[in-house]
Amino acid sequence: MGLAGMVLIVISWLALGRAEDAADWRQSLGLGKETVSHLHFYFHEISTDDNPTVVKVGGTQKTDPSTLFGTVWMEDSPLREGPENTSALVGRAQGLTGADNQSEFGLIMALAFGFTQGKYNGSSLSIFGRKGAADPVQQVPVVGGTGLFRMARGFAMVRTFLLSPDTGLAIIEYNVTVVHYESN
Question: Are 114 and 132 spatial neighbours (Cβ–Cβ below 8 Å)?
Fold first, then answer.
């Protein structure tokens, strides 16, 4: 057997060993097979009212009103099946958003979507990423999760459904594709 044949055997052996190690690693954490889930829900945010779901917690005195650069908000907003305020509550979005652009409005978001109903009750997804204002639909990365979404990764397609400065209501549509491991 020549050197090329031996190298091929060693590479095959290493690849097989790594696949077995990966399966052992997932099993030791109670992780089953990898699966893909698709979720669709609406984020309902209220900035005015007696019971706002988002409040300003920081910002400078010289904030440009067109960009709000430097402003930081704390979120605790409902997630609903539909855009109507009467649609079923499926969870809550909690975390921070901040205006991160000096030349146009844009947000950096660090949010956890905690689900309280249905199949995903008790599970959460974490997103961290930028949502600009220029595109009608933006992509935001899913960077983790808990419960049924352990070791989650993926993306959310985010679209503003309604933005009403007069009433302080914003409704944001989320279409999420997430890869995660099922529990054993």
Answer: no
